Amino acid sequence: MHSRGVPGAALPATAAALALGVLAAPFVPALFPLVLAGASAAACALVLVRRPARRLALALAAVALWLVVGLAGAWALRARALAGFAWVVTVLFLLPLPLLPWVYYRTFVKEDVPPTPQAHGEGGAP
Amino acid sequence: MTVLAVLVLLAAAVAWWGARRVRDSADYFAAGHRAGAWLVGVAGTAAAVSGFTFVGGPGLFAVAGVGSLWIILSAPLTGALQCWAVGEPVVAMVERHKVLTIPELLATRFAGRDTRATAALVIVVGCVASLAVQARAAAVLGEDFLRVPGVAAAIAAMLATTAYTGLGGMRAGLLADAVQGVVMASFAVLLAGAALVAAGGPARAVATLASARPDLLGSFGAADPARACAWYLLFCLGTCAQPHYVQKFLFLRSRAQLRLLPAVLTGALVATLAVWIGVGLAGSALAARGTLAIARPDDLAPRTMSLLGPWAVLTAGVAVLAAMMSTTASFLNMAAAAVTRDLREALGRPALGVAAARVATVLLAVVATAVGVASQRAVVLLGLVGWGFFTAALLPVFTLGLAWSGATARGAAAAIAVGAVADLVLEAVRGQLPAGVEPGLAGAALGTIVLIAASRRRP
């Protein structure tokens, strides 16, 4: 097992599911916002492999929630000229601008979790 | 011409400064691992932003409206994402192993020469192709903005960049990139503000589009929603796979510098992207009112600048040149490192020193400039190798590969190769692909599946 916070099989299983989702989404357009939110949030959540802290997990859950709400709103308002434009610029762009760097700053820890023995070279949790 | 002369003189000064400070390969390729968050953040943004932001972005807004913004909508997220997914493990490996290049980093992680050789090949191909495109763009935009012969603009920009990158490596390159980043960000905000004032303010510009071009508004503008979502994902996740982005993590002096890095990256990026939104919105509104006449989308930015006055044309020209030079410096340095260190060591030969890297830098610049200036057709083909190519080839190894201990050297090398080839094949038939199929994204998805499958397969 390479980390304390993420089960070993979960990582490749999630990555494979998202990769298949990316390949399928263009043929099921309504699926795209879900794949988009899932892949972006999962990429951020890779940090939990190295430092599985509860506060960080909650912060990443909030990031995922913002993505889902933002994309769902954009999808719902796609035919409304002014409301759609305002939603995209405000909720998906302006609102998170100061918040996401601040979330990173607040959840950052100076020392990383010590590395665990690895089976392959340097290993996955440096 | 005065601008180009000043540019070359400034570059010579930076080259002289950098050459005196480069003592070894660590200085040349990794800025001595001594940089702080501010320098790396501003320089990293400068290297990330190309001339497309100043010209192609506003032009794309004129065609796709809000849909074009999905390329840059992930800007608030990408700074934190890069540090969470890639920056933290990369900086930890640099602190332990003092790696100097991206292929060396991957070889250290996966303990495999094949991984290093494959990554180095991808970087050489991608960097040389991107350099040729940058040279061509410098020629075209030099004519549009600086009113000088295109060949002169391309040669001056490449000569200046090669001078400081070749002599001073990334010690000089990082400093030059940071200065160019400040110039780009401040000029972008200035030009965006001026364009919006000329259009009567943001509210009036939006009102104009709402009545004359409502198709440009809505959540996705005139773009297909699936295509807009694919752009978001490509340019969001793709930031974790661009070698010139990841390279900047090698320069940090300590892990503690990461804390502030997303704030600096996000601030610098959003300031620079203001020109895309501001000039795109204002220029499209002015075109809708008939104030501006544009024959093709890429005319939007130059025509808007001409309307604002000669100062705006000159300012935009300097900003575009700065954007190109900063991107060029990183590509030159990475390609030289791949040729003189990574490919040689992957083949079991000793790495060459700084002198050989300087020669390689000059040769690579000459080849790229010659191809970029001489052949329109070659540039069109090389233009296929860019952001999507690096995303397809390197995203699986930089995200899943760094986090999953089950990933093997064989899996990593196969993922890089399959992702790169898949991207090139799909780019060749892009016109026949359904909306939402982005070659870079599809290549990365295939590479991820290959990484998992090949790593699980027993030897």
What does this structure look like?
The complex is a heterodimer of chains A (126) and B (459). Chain A is mainly alpha-helical. Chain A contains six helices and no strands. In chain A, helix 1 (10-24) packs antiparallel against helix 2 (32-45), helix 2 runs antiparallel to helix 4 (54-76) and helix 4 (54-76) packs antiparallel against helix 5 (81-94). The longest helix of chain A has 23 residues, at 54-76. Chain A is flat. Chain B is mostly helical and 459 residues long. At the A-B interface, helix 1, helix 2, helix 3, helix 4 and helix 5 of A face helix 6, helix 7, helix 11, helix 13 and helix 19 of B.
Could you tell me the radius of gyration of chain B in angstroms? 21 Å
> How many strands appear in the DSSP assignment of chain B?
0
The end-to-end span of chain A amounts to 14 Å
Secondary structural class of chain B: mainly alpha
Quaternary class: heterodimer
Largest sheet of chain B: none
Count of alpha and pi helical runs of chain A: 6
Average pLDDT number of chain A: 85
Topology:
The complex is a heterodimer of chains A (126) and B (459).
Chain A lengths: L9 H15 L7 H14 L1 H4 L3 H23 L4 H14 L1 H12 L19
Helix pairs in contact in A: 1-2, 2-4, 4-5
Chain B lengths: L1 H20 L3 H6 L6 H12 L7 H9 L1 H4 L5 H23 L4 H9 L2 H34 L3 H49 L3 H11 L12 H13 L5 H7 L11 H29 L10 H9 L1 H37 L7 H21 L1 H7 L4 H12 L1 H4 L5 H20 L10 H18 L3
Task: Write a compact overview of the structure shown.
Chain A has 126 residues and is mainly alpha-helical. Helix content of chain A is 65%, strand content 0%.
